[in-house]
Amino acid sequence: MLEQVYASHYLADHRPPISDLRRKPRCFAPRVLFSSCLTLPTLLQAQQTPAEKISEVRKLNAKMAEQGSEISTLSKYVAMLRNLAGDAQTAPTTQAATQPAKNLTADEKLKFALPKVIFDNAPLSESLDWLKDAARLNLVIDWKTLEATGITKKTPVNCKLTSIPVSKALQTILSQVSVETRLVYIVDNATVRVSTLEEFAKHPITRVFDISTLLPRNTNLAASQADLMHTIQANVDPASWKDVGGSGTISMSGKNMTVTQSPLIMPMVESCIKQLEASDPDRAIQACRTAILQQTRQIESLRSEISRLAARCRAAGKEVPPEPVPLEKALDQVLPDVKFDQTPFETCINALRNAGKPNVNIFVNWRALQDAGIDKSKPITLNASHLTLRTVVTKVLAAAGGDLLDSVIDEGALTISTRSDLDRNTMTRVYDVRDIVLASGNPQKALQDLVAGIQKNCATDTWRDNGGTIGSIRETNGQLIITQSSRIHRLIDAYLETLRQVKKR
């Protein structure tokens, strides 16, 4: 039934309304124009079934993520070789070995990779001053607000990270100085400001979005606007909107949407809109292919630069360090033998940092673990062989804290903390599940069952429908808009992949 509806609207001269499938069980694709100028890939794309298109989008997105990780890793390697070859200004060992150019924007400086970030019980003020100088950031700290919450300039900071983006270094510092009070940063033009989440919420910003591509033609404009508004409010920090006691507002004027929100929530609104815009398979396929081509050219350029810099280093008699690998690949390397016999938890983590080649950036939020009653000196016993580094980390965390601990990959580092701490950071993603529900004789029931299955099998107690405070799901045109933590998004990805594999059998 749903496939027939999909096909009947395939050449329709309008965009679909953004509607809840439980109220309006329809699924659409954009119009396809056949002409003599169509290329072979375009014709092949037009002949694909909806499920095949959705599958291709998933594969292209995976390719983009893989290339993005490679670009990040190669960029850090280039910075390392430039320093070795003398192309970058060097600094004392107590400072960063390389620095971003002064004329870069604040966002670009936050992406810059620092060779080493090491703090051993360093005062918070000194740690932030070091980062400010190393990254040439215009960093402004709201000490008055921080001190009112009990966080002082002398609060100790401990971390050891290598080849890490400035943004991750800043996140790491802020995340460990307090568990009760959430410290965050925002980019305000050329300035990076640090304060509490609550303080930033008091100073909302306003943005106007062009939503013309999200509104259907020849349909009730007011109803479509209201549906889009509800979709955003239901999935982007629902408690932050004025209708339920928050401060965020949305207003519509024709094909423009004006949003007033906290500077921390506004990027989530932007991400949600971008994902909705890219949710049509045909458009997503074209956008992915364009992005992959651009990434491929960037990788070729980076590798050419690496060859040039490596040759210069060898000509100068300098040993060229081995090329690093993306963290995902580093975690998949197999460790021949792991033996921990009543070894302190912290010692185990230090050993795992150095167990693979290359070494792995691992950050542990010891403050969050301590508040959960987990001691860094807890003895761990583990004898294993021929397991991946990822699996060994999981086993060590289970031995140290049972179900309390978990890890996530974030900007080139494996962050370890309590699940409650990791779940404080949420993101909104759009999952196209039409390939799963289309095959059912009753698409509406299949979609409802899928939502129930996700909420049952992926961190049940975190969903708002189950009494939790984190997760939300909304269905629209055979797609699921899900707000969850990155840890639970990983579980959802695995759950949906399992369903797809079962469906193929």
State the main characteristics:
alpha+beta, 4 domains, 3-stranded antiparallel β-sheet, 505 residues, single chain, globular, 3-stranded mixed β-sheet
Based on CA atoms alone, the radius of gyration comes out at 25 Å
Q: How much beta, percentage-wise?
A: 15-25%
Arithmetic mean pLDDT = 81
Number of separate domains: 4
- Percent of residues in helices comes to 40-55%
Could you tell me how far the N terminus lies from the C terminus, measured between alpha carbons in angstroms? 22 Å
Tertiary shape: globular
Strand order of the largest sheet: 2-5-4
What is the count of β-strands? 18
Sheet with the most strands?
A: 3 strands, mixed
Query: pLDDT under 50 segments (min length 5)?
Result: 1-46, 88-97
Structural class: alpha+beta
Helical run tally: 19
Structure in words:
The protein folds into four domains: 2-47 and 424-504, no CATH class; 48-203 and 262-324, no CATH class; 212-256, no CATH class; 327-422, Phage tail protein beta-alpha-beta fold. 45% of the residues lie in helices and 21% in strands. The chain has helices at residues 2-8, 40-47, 50-85, 106-111, 124-135, 143-148, 166-176, 197-201, 221-235, 266-277, 281-315, 327-331, 345-353, 366-371, 389-401, 419-422, 434-437, 443-457, 486-504; strands spanning 113-123, 139-141, 156-165, 183-188, 191-196, 205-210, 249-253, 256-261, 334-335, 338-344, 362-364, 379-384, 387-388, 405-410, 413-418, 426-432, 472-476, 479-485. It is globular.
